[in-house]
Amino acid sequence: MTEDTSNTTTNTKGSTTKATECGGIYDVTESGIYLRHLPPLPTPKDGQEFLNRFRDGFELNILERPTPNELIFELLHVDVSFANALRRIMIADVPTIAIEHVYMWNNSSIVHDEVLSHRLGLVPIDADPRLFDDLLGDDDDPTDRNTIVFRLEVRCGRNKAEDDKRERVRNSQQNQFAKRDVEEQGVDVEDSTMGRVELDKTAVQSANLHQVGNPTQMAMLQEAIETPGRPYTRHVYTKDLEWVAEGDQVERFPKGIRPVHDDILLAKLRPGQVIELEAHGRRGYGRDHAKYSPVATASYRLMPRVELVKPVYGKKAEELVGLYEPGVFRLEPCGPEDIQEGGQEGGVKAVVHNPYACTMSRNYMRDPILKESVKIMRVPNHFIFSIESVGMLSPGLILVEALKILQAKCRNLVRMLDETLEAEGLRD
Known about the structure:
By secondary structure, the protein is of the alpha+beta class. The protein has eleven helices and 18 strands. The strands form six sheets. Strands 3, 4, 5, 6, 15 and 18 form a six-stranded antiparallel β-sheet that branches. A hairpin with a 5-residue loop joins strand 5 and strand 6. The longest helix is centred in the last third of the chain and has 29 residues, at 395-423.
C-alpha cells in the first residue's frame, strides 16, 4: 500500500503540512510553472480568528549560517506580501552608519574630490546605529550623539623608508599629546582609552595577521608599490582613516569606531602628493542612499517539493543523483520490495534526500524515463530566505530589526485607521 501525498508537503524539519492551507501549489513543467488550485481554508469570520490562525501557523526557523555575514532561514504559512515586506525593510529601512559629508582640505592626488568623497561614502563603518540619533534636517547641528568624525592625513614621500619614518614621528607625537591630555585630566595613561598606544599595537597586529593570512595578496601589494624602475607609489587604505572621538564617545565606544574592512583601497599617491580631509558619518537608511543599506543581498525563494512518482533504479538512479540535481537525491541499496517492483538484487535506487537543495532545474526532463518518474513543485506559503550582510550589522540583528520595524509599521497603520474612523464618526 502506498500513502497518498498529493495534498501534503514536507518541510525541512520533517513535519508535514497540508497543501490546502495555501490554497494551491506550483507545478513545474517543461513549458513553465503553473499554479494548481486546491480547496483553501474557510474564510475567517472576523479579524481575531484571522490573527489566531496566523499566530498558530507562523514559523521562522534558522536553517544555515554559512559564514558570519550570511544567514539562511525559512518562513512558513505566510503570504508572499509578508515575505516581500520583510525583504524590502531589510534593504531600505534598517538604519546604518555611513560617511555623509567630506571636508576636503588638501587633495593633490589624481583622484578628484568628488570621486574620493563617493568612495569614502561607500566604506562600511563598524558602528552600532542604535546608539546614534537621526539628524532631523540640514539645519540640525551635528553632535556626538548623531555624528562620527574621521580624519585622513596621508602624504607620499620619495620612498617607503621616508614614509615609515614620518609615520613613526607622527605616532610618537600623537602618543605624547594623548598622554599630556590624559595627565591633565588626572587619569592613568595605562587605563585610558584616549591614548594611541593600544590602538597602534592593535593596528600592527592586524597588519601582521593580514600579511600572514594572505601572502599572495601582500606580494601583489609590494609589487604594485615597489616595482623597480617605477616611481614609488603609496596606497591609501581605509586603515588610514583615524577616528576622532567627540564628546563622550570614548566612554560609549571603548573599542573604538573603525571601517569594517581595513584593506579597501581609497587612492594611490605618487611622491609629493597629499590627501588631507575630514569625514563626518551619520545614521541613514537605504531608501535614501544605497550606501546605508546593511545587506548586499536579501532574497527569498519558494520551498521546493520533490517527489518520485515512479521508482528509479540502476544507471538511471546514478544519473539522477550525480548529474541532474546534486544533493537532492541519494542512492540506497534495493530491498526485497524493490526487487519485486523491477529493481535488481545488489542494485541501487534513487530516493529523495534534500528537497531544499533543489534549484528547479528541468534538465532531467530531457530523459523520457526520468521525466515520467520525477515531479518537482513549489509551495506558495513556504519561503527560504537568504541574507548576506555587508558587515556593519550581523545578519541575525538585521532580521530582528526588520521584524521590529515591520511591527511598528503595522501598529502605525492601525492607529491611522482608528483615527480616521473616529474623525468620520464611524466607530461604535
